[in-house]
Structures are given as structure tokens and as C-alpha cells.
Write a structure and sequence with these properties.
By secondary structure, the protein is mainly α. The protein is built from nine helices and no strands. Helix 1 packs parallel to helix 3, helix 2 packs across helix 7 and helix 6 crosses helix 7. The protein is globular, with a radius of gyration of 16 Å.
Length: 173
Amino acid sequence: MKDNKHYAAICRFYGDKRAERSGVPLIAHIDEGLALLDAIGAPQRAKEAFCLHPLLQDDAALMSALAPDSMFAASRPDPLVVLLAMEYRRVANDYLSHHCEGENDAIALSCVDEVNQMLIADKIQNRKDFERFHRGTHAHSDVLALYFGNWLRRLGVSDERYAQLCERVASAA
């Protein structure tokens, strides 16, 4: 993936930026997500869309990407990959942590398998980092733990499978 234009686009977008709380380079989210996508057998275009998702995830990023001279436009992404990233955006943003009310929250998945695979990679990677850096110290720790549990349950990822996939990421690092 290192020579893929979609990966290059996220590398340019992130640069050397790091997560505020943990200090982890932002690109680690993509690299670990790609390792998870490999582990679950996701196709190439799901991996490429995973690379692009931060460039489209929130409204500000989307508006920036729409500018004719944007870094996103300059990367000339594959249109089918962009469609997957936009579908990911729709589904992921429909259930954010501030929507979490309880264990039985309704979470809609995508009709597109690659998007659900991207969600698996994203939620496993985010939960792993949450547990490593923030569990018990974050102001909304209990809600975040429930939120990640809800997502993984909805995506059909058992606690055992979660642990297995986390081990795969650790060995790939």
C-alpha cells in the first residue's frame, strides 16, 4: 500500500501530526486499520477507501476536499473508492459516541460489505487505542466503552475475535 495514491494522499494529509492525548502519529490509525483489513480479507478498494476516510469524515474535511485545488482533488482518487469512503462516512457518522444511550442502541450497517469491513477495522483500532490510552481516565470513559462494545457487537465481532485481531495488529507493528 505504501506506493498507492490513496495511501500517499492520507500521508500528505496527516504529515507528522500526532493524536493530542496519546501522542501517537495519526498515520498509525491507517497503518493499523490496513493490517486489520488484511487480517479479515478485505479487498484492495476497501483498503484504499479506508485510507481516504479521514479526508471526508467530518463536514469540515468534506468541504475542504470539495475545493478544486484541494489535496484530495490533487490526489485524483478512484471514483469507486470515493463512493466507498462516502458510504463509510454516512454509516459511521450516523452512530457516534454522543448518540450512545445504552446497550441496545440501534446501529445501521451498510449494504456494502467493504464498508462494513472498514467499520470493523476502524472500531477495533479505535477501541484498542481507547483501552490503551484513555480507559478510566477519559471524562466519558464509560460511554466510550459502551459505544465501542455496541459497534463491535453489531458488526459481529466477539470479544475473542477482537483480542485475536488486536494481536495481529501488534505483531504487524
